[in-house]
UniProtKB/TrEMBL annotation:
Pfam family, any one: LysR_substrate
Lineage: Bacteria, Bacillati, Actinomycetota, Actinomycetes, Propionibacteriales
Organism: Microlunatus capsulatus
Gene3D superfamilies, per the entry: Periplasmic binding protein-like II, Winged helix-like DNA-binding domain superfamily/Winged helix DNA-binding domain
PANTHER family cross-referenced by the UniProt entry: LYSR SUBSTRATE-BINDING (PTHR30346:SF29), TRANSCRIPTIONAL DUAL REGULATOR HCAR-RELATED (PTHR30346)
Positions of the HTH lysR-type domain: 4-61
Keywords, alphabetical: DNA-binding, Transcription, Transcription regulation
Family assignment from sequence similarity: Belongs to the LysR transcriptional regulatory family.
Protein name listed in UniProt: DNA-binding transcriptional LysR family regulator
SUPFAM superfamilies named in the record: Periplasmic binding protein-like II (SSF53850), Winged helix' DNA-binding domain (SSF46785)
InterPro entries registered for this protein in UniProt: LysR_HTH_N, LysR_subst-bd, WH-like_DNA-bd_sf, WH_DNA-bd_sf
Example GO molecular function: DNA binding
Amino acid sequence: MSGPTVEQLELLRELHDRGSLAAVAAALHKTPSAVSQQLKAAQRELGVPLVVRAGRGLVLTDAGVALARSAVGVATALAEAEASWQRFQGAATGTVRLACFHSAAELLVPGLLDRLRSRPGLVLETADEDVAQDDFAALAADYDVVVAHRSDDVAAPARDGLVVVPLLREPMDVALPADHPLAGREHVTPADVIGEDWIAPPPEFPIDRVLSAIAARAGAPVRVVRRTTHLPLTEILVARGHGIALLPRHTTREHAPAGLVLLPLRDLRAGRLVEALLRPDRYARRAVREVVDALVAEAAAVAP
């Protein structure tokens, strides 16, 4: 009886991370039937049950979970070996896929591309992914680097098995129209703004979680009149007097429209943490590591 192959380990890892045969099949560009046949063949060759049926789906057995976790170490070792070989060959080469939520992309991607211009062997592919803060970790299965954000007043969501690289902390300021009675102040408190009409992103986004903290501190509910994830739209609506909002300081100051004022929020820690999430084997790749290093340098430049 032989041990597991690298391909079998990777298949079990994908099932562990993605949770369903359909998701694994889509990621591997195979049919669910083909993936199912691969699992059955692996069980026959290894002589132990690797999956059991649960409802309409499959879950890994203890043996399957153990092999899925060992797949991470195997893939990381292979990536480290490739990185060592590339160091002998010269400059890093390859394609790196980066997912980034919209406002961080505005803040970081232009400068990141500037920094990578001197590395012609690196090809950076970017994708827009703006999801609830607890859903960013799952994206690491599909991208080499995932730029995620989370509110800094709550514990980090579960991100087992991922490398987390801190990029920056961005304060959240209260955005007001320039003719608002509070616009001339140096700062505002939750009690000052709790009674206003608010424009906010959907629930479970970092900004909305800070808004919930404002409500808790002020002891009154927040009145949200409009929800959108598109921050430039929020800026325009605030400038035209259709409500107030929480907006990220560094991003907004880059292109704030006329008629909008940003004020720091006092008596409450209001901000978001921006981080890069990666699978360990992706982080071991030399091309990916160079992109992450450039991303860290750009974050330090735009938000010292």
